[in-house]
Specification:
about 70 residues; mainly alpha
């Protein structure tokens, strides 16, 4: 599972860099944003999980069709 996490991190970095580069036209700014954005996104995800846990939601999928 660690390989999947690592490859997703690379995809995330590449997308963040591409978007920042396209908007700014700067490799330096694109690289800086691509390094900083995932850190803030990780913090936001952590905070989201804490709030979600406090609401009592389990995150478990519910069946599409109720059981009889």
């Amino acid at each position: 599972m660690m390989i999947k996490t690592a490859t997703f991190a690379l995809v995330h970095f590449a997308v963040a860099f591409a978007v920042a580069y396209i908007i700014s036209g700067s490799f330096l700014l694109g690289g800086a944003i691509a390094l900083i954005e995932p850190a803030f996104n990780t913090l936001a995800y952590h905070l989201h999980e804490r709030v979600w846990t406090r609401t009592g939601q389990t995150g478990a999928a519910r069946p599409l069709v109720p059981s009889t």
